[in-house]
Amino acid sequence: MSAPGGERRRQRNRTFWFWTFVGPFVAGLALFTYVPLAWSVYLSFFDAHNTVSPTDFVGFGNYTAMLGDPAFRSSLLTFTVFTAFIVPATYALSLGLALAVNRLRFAQAFFRSVFFLPAACSYVVAAMVWKMSVFNGVRFGLANTVLGWFGAEPVAWLAATDPPWYWLVIITVRLWLQAGFYMLLFLAGLQRIPVRLYEAAALDGARPGWQTFRHITFPALRTTSVAVVLLLVVGAFQAFDEFYNLLSGARGYPPYARPPLVHLYYTALGQGQDLGLGSAGAVILALIILVVTVVQARWSGLGRREEY
Amino acid sequence: MDDALVRAGRALRLALLIALAALFLIPFYLLVRNGLASEAEITAPDWTLFPRDPHWSNVRELFADPDVPMAHALLNSSLIAVATTAGTLLLASLAGYGLARIPYRHANAVFYAIVGTLMVPAAVTFVPSFVLVSSLGWVSSLRGLIVPTLFSAFACFVFRQYFLGFPRELEDAAQVDGLGYWRTFWRVVVPNSRPVFAAVGTIVFIGAWNAFLWPLVIGQGRDSWTVQVALSTFTTAQTVNLHELFLAAAVSILPLLVVFLFLQRYIVAGVERSGIDD
Amino acid sequence: MPINRRTLMAGAAGLALTGGLATACGTNTGRGGGGSGRPRLSQWYHQYGEAGTRQAVGRYAAAYKDADVRVEWRPGNYEQQSSAALLTDSGPDVLEVSGPTLDQIHSGQIVDLTDVIADVKGDFGQAVLAPKTYDGRVWGVPQLVDTQVLYYRKSLLQAAGVRPPRTLDELVDAAGRLTTAKVKGLFLGNDGGAGVLGGTPLHAAGLSLVTDEGAVGFDDPAAARTLGTLHRLYADKSLLLGAPTDWADPSAFVQGLTAMQWSGLWALPQIKRAHGEDFGVLPFPPDGPAGRPAVPVGAWSAAVSARSGHRDAARAFVKWLWVERTDLQEDFALSYGFHIPARTSLAARADRLRNGPAAEIVRFTTDHGFPAQPLLWTPPSQTTYQDALNRIIKGGADPATELKSAVRKAEAELRRMRKGS
Fold it and tell me: Transmembrane region positions (chain A) (predicted)?
C-alpha cells in the first residue's frame, strides 16, 4: 500500500488532476494578463511614443521622469488622503447598513435589495445622474433646490474649488455605488456569528447595543473586515471611472481630484500615447498597491489558512 | 419605561433606514423621470416632480432610432454577458477547486500568481492587450469580445476561499465511493455550491454587462455594439441627446435588476458561505 | 444525481454555443480583398452628433467605384480608439483625425498625402492647412472647418445698457453687469473656460501657443496680464458654472441661463430656432496694445494609415472624396450639421453661409482665424498649459508663476520634437 512507487504514482496522479483543474484558467490568465503585463513592463524601459515595438532603450529614464513629475507625486498624495477617507467611510456605512438590515424582522429582503441595487449601475450611468441631475450647478439642480429651501446660494458643485465641493460629489457617488456590495459581505459575516456568543454575553451582563457590538459583533467580524478593507484600498487606488466621467470635459480634466490613473491617461495613455512613460507610471502604482496590500495582509493575518 | 425606550429606538432606526432607502432610490427615480421628459424639460429651470405628460413615445423613439441599434445592442450585451458568465464560472470554479483541494507542491505559488494580478490596474495593460488580441485576428469578433475576459482572478479567489470551507465529509464519502477528483467535483461539490455560483455569477454578469472600453475598441462595426457602447453614442462632440440618454440608461439597468431580484436570495447565502471573509 | 449531469450538460452546451457563434461570426476588419477584385477599405469617422451624417458618409462610400469602402462610425473617445487601432493591422485604412499629431508623423503611422492634395493646396486657408503640414509635406486632407464664437443676446445687453464687448475688459465688465439672480453673464464651459479657450486668449493678446518658428509663443508678460484678467470673470461670479450641458451644447444659452456663451458654429441653427433675430456673434475680443480679435479654427482631416494593406487605393479614395468631389464635401459640411467647408472656394459660394450671423462667422475665420491645435503643440504641453490656465482662472493663482511651468514643459516638448525629426 504505502510502497514508495505507489506514493509517487499517487503524487503524479494528483499533479495531473491539479493541472487539469487549474491549467485552463492559468493558461488563459498567462496569455491575456501576464503577456500584456510583461509587455507593459518591457515598454516602461523604452521611449515608446506611438509604438509597442520600441527600439530606443532609456533604462530607468521613464521611472525617474514619472517620479520627478510633481503632478504625479501630488496625485499619489491626494489619493493616499482620499483612500484614508473613503475606506473608513464606506466601511462604516456598509457595516451600519448591514447591522440595521440584519436586525429587521420584516421587509429585510426589500431593504437589502434597495441598498444593493446601485451595484448594478455602471459608473457611466451613475456619474451622468450625479453630474446632470443631482449636483448640477444651476439653481434647479436637486442639491441646489434643497439648499434653496434653506435660503442658501446655489453651489457649482463640480466646478467649486474653494471650498472643494467636488469631493462631496465624488464621495457620494462612490458610496452609493459600493456600499450595498460591502453591506452584503457584512450581512453574510453577521449571519455566521453563533447565537450562543450573544447568549453568553447576556449572561455576563453585557447590555445589548454598544457593549455587545464592541465585545462580540465587531471582533467576530474581523475576517470580513480585513477582506473589505483590502478590496476598498485596492479600489481606491485604482479609481478611474467615476472621476473621469464626472470631471472630464471634451477638452481635458481639471487640475484637481486627479487619481493616478487619470493622470496617466492624460499624460501618456490617452491621446498622448507615450506608452513607455505611461507603463512606468503604472508599474509604480501597481507596486505601491502591492506593498500596501502585503503589509495589510501580514498585519491582519489574511495570509493564514493557506495550508491544506 | 425601558421597554418604551427600546421601542422608540427601534422606530428611530426604522425611520432612518426608510430615509436612507429613499435616498438610495432617488437616482433611479431621476433616470425614469428624465427618460420620460421632453428634451427641454430636463434642462428647464422650473423643475417638475414628474413630466406633466410623460413622453411614452420616447420609448418608441429610442428603439426606432436609426443611428442607434438599441434592440440589437441589448441582444449583444445579453449574449456576451451570458457567455462570459458561463465561461468564467466554469474556468474559475475548476481552478478554485484545484487550488483549494488537490495537494500540489506549487499550489500556493500558483495561487499568489493569480491573486497578484488583482493589483494591476487593467487600464494599464490595455494597449498591449488590444495589440495582442488584434494580432490573433480577433478584432470585431465575439471571440475577441468574450474570451480575453473569461479569466477572472477575483472569481477564482472567491471560489477557492469557498471550497476551502466546503465540508470535507461530503467529499470523503464520494472518494470512498471511488469517485476521482473530477467526478467528485461535478457530482458532489457543484450541486452543493449553488449559492456561490449564484453570487459570483451575478457579479460577473454585472461586470460583463457594464463593460465599456473593451467592447468599444474590439467590437468594431455597429453590429457588435453593446448596450454601454450604444449609451455612449447619445453624447457626442456637438450635442447631448439627454432624454434618450437617460431613458437608454434606465433600459440598460432593467435586465440587471431582474437578474438580481431573481438571484438575490442565493447571493446572500452564497457570500455567507464563500469564506471570502476568511 | 441527475442534477449535476444536467449542470454539466448545460455547461457543455453553453460552451459549444459560444464556440459556434464565435466561429460563425468570423472577423470583419474590412481588410482583405472581396471576391470582386476591388480592394476593400475600412474608413473611420468619429461620431458626429448631427442626424443624417452617418447615412451621408455611407452614401459617399457606396458611390465610390474603385474600392469596396466600409464605413466605421466610432462613438466614445475617438482619439484613444484610433491611436490604439493604428498600432495594429486590424485598424482603418482611411481615418478621420483631428490632428494628425506630430508623433504619428514621426513614428510613421500615417502616410504622406502631399501629391493627393497638390492640385488644390491653394484652396485651403492657412490656419486650416498649417497644422496638417510638416516639413513641407501634407499629412491630412481637411474635411471641414469648425470654429467657436461668442454668442450674445441682443435684448439682454440692451436691457442692461451694455454694448457688444470690443475688448476683453469690456467683456469682463459686460458679463458682470449682465449677471442677475437668475441669469449669469457668460458661459465658458463648466470648468470656467480653461478647456475650451486654450490658446484663444493668447491670440487675443497678440501672442500664440507656438510661434511659426517653432518656439514657445507665450513667454511674455502680456500673456500673464491677459490670463489674469480672465480670473476676474470668475471672481465676479459672472460665469455660469455647472450647467447640465457643457459649452459645446447651446442648451444653456437657449434656456436663458446665460446672456452670453462661447460655443461652436454648429450651435447656430439651434440658437437661431430659439432666439430668432435676438442674438449676435463676436470673435474673442482683443486685449492689450498688441491685441487682435481671436477666432480658433480646427479641422478634421482625412489620413491614411501606414499599416493599410491597400495604401494606394486608400490614397486614391481620399483624393476622390476630399479633393475631387466638391459636391459631396459641401453636402458633408452643410446638409446635416453646420460647419464651414474646408475649401475656401466652397465656403464662399455656399448659400447657407451667405448672410446673417453665419456670414459674419465665416468672415471672422478668414480675418482672425488661427489654428486651435498647432502641430507642435503636443498633448503633454496642452495638459500642463490647461492646468495652469485652470488654476489662474479659478484658483486665482499667480499667472506669471503658473505660466513659467507651462513654458518649461512646452520647451521640453519642442526639444523632443526637434530630436524626433
Answer: 16-37, 76-102, 109-130, 165-188, 220-240, 275-295
The reply to whether residue A97 touches residue B20, judged by beta carbons under 8 angstroms, is yes
> Does residue C8 lie in a domain region?
no
Task: For residue C315, give the CATH number of its domain.
Answer: 3.40.190.10
Tabulate helix, strand, coil % of chain B (nearest 5): 75, 0, 25
Number of CB atoms found within 10 A of residue C90's CB: 26
Residue of B nearest to A222 (CA): B277
How many domains are there within chain A? 2
Say if residue C265 is in the same domain as residue C410: yes
Q: Quote the number of domains for chain C.
A: 2
Same domain, yes or no: C120 and C269: no
The Cα–Cα gap between C367 and C142 comes to: 19
Q: A137: nearest CA in chain C? A: C242
Instruction: Give the nearest chain C residue to A270 (CA atoms).
Output: C80
> What gap in Å lies between CA B259 and CA B202, rounded to an integer?
8
Tell me if chain A has a CB within 8 Å of the CB of B27: yes
Give the distance, in angstroms, between the CA of residue C368 and the centroid of all CA atoms in the same chain. 17
C300-327 pLDDT per residue, tens: 999 999 999 999 999 999 999 999 999 9
Q: Which residue of B has its CA nearest to A130?
A: B27
| Domain match, A134 and A253 both | yes
Q: Nearest CA of chain B to the CA of A36: how many Å? A: 5
Residue window 178-197, chain C: list those with CB within 8 Å of chain B: 182
Q: What would the grid cell of residue C115 be?
A: 501629391
| CATH code (residue A147) | 1.10.3720.10
Give the model confidence (pLDDT) of C42-76 as tens digits: 999 999 888 899 999 999 999 999 999 999 999 88
State the best of B50, B91, B124 to mutate against chain A, taking most chain A CBs within 10 Å: B124
The residues spanned by each domain of chain B are 61-274
| Predicted structure pTM score | 0.86
* Integer Cα distance of C189 and C300 in angstroms: 22
Among C371, C412, C381, C325, CA closest to C134: C371
Asked if B261 has any chain A CB less than 8 Å from its own CB, the reply is yes
Is residue A26 domain-shared with residue A131, that is, in the same domain?
no
Q: Do A252 and C101 touch (CB under 8 A)?
A: no
- DSSP character for A137? S
Q: Which residue on chain B is closest to A294 by alpha carbon?
A: B116
Of the partner residues B126, B135, B141, the one whose CB lies closest to the CB of residue C88: B135
C249 in a domain, yes or no?
yes
H or E stretch covering C68: strand C68-74
Same domain for A183 and A221, yes or no, is yes
Q: Long-range contacts for A263-266 (Cβ within 8 Å, ≥24 apart)?
A: A263/A71, A263/A72, A263/A75, A264/B123, A264/B124, A265/A240, A265/B123, A266/C379, A266/C383
Q: Is the pLDDT of residue A304 over 60?
A: no
Do A39 and A65 fall within a single domain? no
Is B125 close to A290, i.e. CB distance below 8 A?
Answer: no
Class of domain B61-274: mainly alpha
Contacts of C257 in chain A (CB under 8 A): 138
Is the domain of A39 the same as that of A80?
no
Residues of C in contact with B222 (CB under 8 A): 73
Q: Is residue C1 part of a domain?
A: no
In a domain, A305, yes or no: no
Query: With contacts defined as CB-CB under 8 Å, which chain C residues touch B147?
Result: 22
Answer yes or no: do A79 and A25 share one domain: no
Cβ under 8 Å to C: B residues 199-258: 212, 216-217, 220-222, 225, 229, 232-233, 236-242
pLDDT by position in tens, chain B (length 278): 567 887 888 888 889 999 999 999 999 999 999 899 887 777 776 777 787 778 888 888 889 888 888 999 999 999 999 999 999 999 999 999 999 999 999 998 999 899 888 888 887 788 899 999 999 999 888 899 999 999 999 899 889 888 887 888 888 888 888 888 999 999 999 988 887 888 788 889 999 999 988 898 888 778 888 999 998 888 877 677 888 889 999 999 999 888 888 777 776 665 555 544 44
Min Cα–Cα distance to chain A from B98, Å: 5
Task: Answer yes or no: do A150 and A23 share one domain.
Answer: no
User: Which phi-psi region, left, alpha or beta, contains residue A84 (left: φ > 0; alpha: ψ -120 to 50)?
Assistant: alpha
Are A231 and A140 in the same domain? yes
